Amino acid sequence: MKLESLRTILGNDGIVTDPSLNSAYTVDWTRRYKGYTPAVLLPRTTGQVSQIVKWCYENAIALVPQGGNTGMVGGATPVNGELVLSLKRMTAIEEVDDATGQIVTQAGATLGDVQQAASQLGWKYGVDLSARDSASIGGTIATNAGGSQVLRYGNTREQVLSLEAVSGTGDVIGDLRGLPKDNTGYHLPGLLCGSEGTLAVVTRARLRLVKPPEEELSILLGFRSLNEALEIVEEIRKSLDDVQACEIFFHNGLSLVCERFEIIPPWNEQLAAYLLVDIGGQAGLEERISNSPLSAFFNASHFVAYGNDSQSRKKLWQYRDLHTEAISAAGVPHKLDVSLPHGKLNEFCNNVQEVINAIDDQTQSFLFGHAGDGNIHVNILGPDPEDLEVDIAVLKYVASLGGSISAEHGIGRAKAHHLYLNRTPTEINIFQEIKSIFDPAGILNPGTIFPQQEI
Ligand code: FAD
Ligand code: MLT
Ligand code: ZN
Fold first, then answer.
1. Per-domain boundaries in the chain
2. Confidence of residue 454 (pLDDT cuts 50, 70, 90)
3. Are 269 and 305 in contact (CB under 8 A)?
């Protein structure tokens, strides 16, 4: 591959060809997906992204857009030797507009940087996840990331007002006007959210900000049965207007976290399930909670811990947030991010181990996730990275219950062969037609969302 033209576009410091310097870009966060690349391309501007993609289009060379490389489904890994187009150097936060509550940023800025820039001017960005210091805004848009506050603010799609992107021909599309009302044809930001780098490279975005809560409170609850925990999830959703997050985890995950990070568990007793609930709103939270139907439960339970300042809240959140790292430290997990229809979470959590055991009874499974959204992360340790039998059994079980095989991480490469479980052949055809219009040469992230085809 002749890379000289790319060197001319990017300069010597904008292209990394030495494989010993590339490994951070060619292996995914979970270590399940490994690839190789002739070069990592590091543009600084939309103009450079456009020139790179145009060159790839004209030369029929595939590329993989990459932000923070924290994705969980292998969508940012150059498994077939694609070029890596990293947005790592496009990190400028261009504007925080106090009048409209909007922020304009380049796509490579981290979620954490955007949160901080918003907060410095008295605003809040409504998406949060524990990879905030590495995950990029472009990556969160491309995956339509969820996280812990979907219950309150919606997923990433609901935050993106406008965006700028480069299509598979190298054309710059979109705008950054952020008009609150604009029904001029198809909604480009909505379409590109969740497109996983297969339609266009997101280069800049204008995002909606919200007013931060005056008070925040975290409550950790322990339960002797899953059923009891899920009943409280229902009650929380019904009776607490201020709920921001409602997360679930189980005893084996908590033990792994506590062992790995040498943290003292919240209670000595081993409980079946734990909920971590975040409440945020106008001053007077504790009074509103004590007037709610939940207060009887809080007062009666032995397993309630409150965090009402940032340090004590952080302490409670680490039990939940450290699950991902603790599991990956124990092995290379198969990560299945699924959601269940209302009322089916109990059945799923109770039966999924049996579904797994029917294929392989030597695995270790850890469940945790966003209970308030019906979104559970099933993490399975044991099977080889390429062995998909257990994955397929779990995903088929989810589909049979009417759930989604990808709640928030995307389809990526991990589930490209299983999209049919949730989408009809007609829908998949329409998706592929849409891709071929944005990306006529099929150079953008081949093998992601749809199984690999020759380009
Ligand atoms: P990458 O991993 O670099 O890429 C992900 C996908 O987006 C790829 O398909 C890639 O090609 C594409 N892409 C990246 N940038 C662009 C761009 N500029 N234009 C077009 N396509 C692009 N996810 C959740 O939804 N909720 C969570 O709660 C959550 N928690 C996490 C916790 C941890 C500890 C970790 C490691 C990950 C977590 N994730 C979570 C997954 C991950 O952080 C998100 O998927 C995130 O959105 C990925 O951002 P990224 O910049 O790392 O993207
Ligand atoms: C989370 O909710 O912590 C993430 O989606 C990451 C994971 O599934 O491990
Ligand atoms: Zn999650």
1. 4-88, 93-208, 215-323, 331-421
2. low
3. no
pLDDT (tens digit per residue) in 431-440: 999 999 999 9
345-359 and 389-400 helices cross at what angle (nearest 10)?
150
Pocket test for ligand 2, best of 337, 366, 367 (most atoms within 8 A of CB): 337
Q: Which fold has domain 331-421?
A: Alpha-Beta Plaits (3.30.70)
**How far is the C-alpha of 132 from the C-alpha of 110, rounded, in Å?**
7
Ligand 2: which residue has its CA nearest to atom 8? Answer: 377
The model's confidence at residue 158, banded by pLDDT at 50, 70 and 90, is: very high
Atom of ligand 1 nearest to the CA of 448: 9
Q: Which residue has its alpha carbon closest to ligand 2 atom 9?
A: 324
pLDDT over 70 at 443, yes or no: yes
Residue 183 is predicted with a pLDDT of 94
CA 12–ligand 2 middle distance (angstroms) = 37
Which CATH fold would you assign to the domain 4-88? 3.30.43
Q: Report the alpha-carbon distance of residue 47 to residue 412 in Å, rounded.
A: 27
Q: Is 130 in the pocket of ligand 2 (CB under 6 A)?
A: yes
The answer, as to whether pTM is greater than 0.85, is yes
Domain 215-323 indexed as CATH 3.30.420.40: no
Instruction: Give 428 Cα–ligand 2 centroid separation in angstroms.
Output: 27
CATH code for residues 93-208: 3.30.465.10
Ligand 2 centroid vs 294 CA: distance in angstroms? 28
The residue assigned the tokens 């909920």 is 275
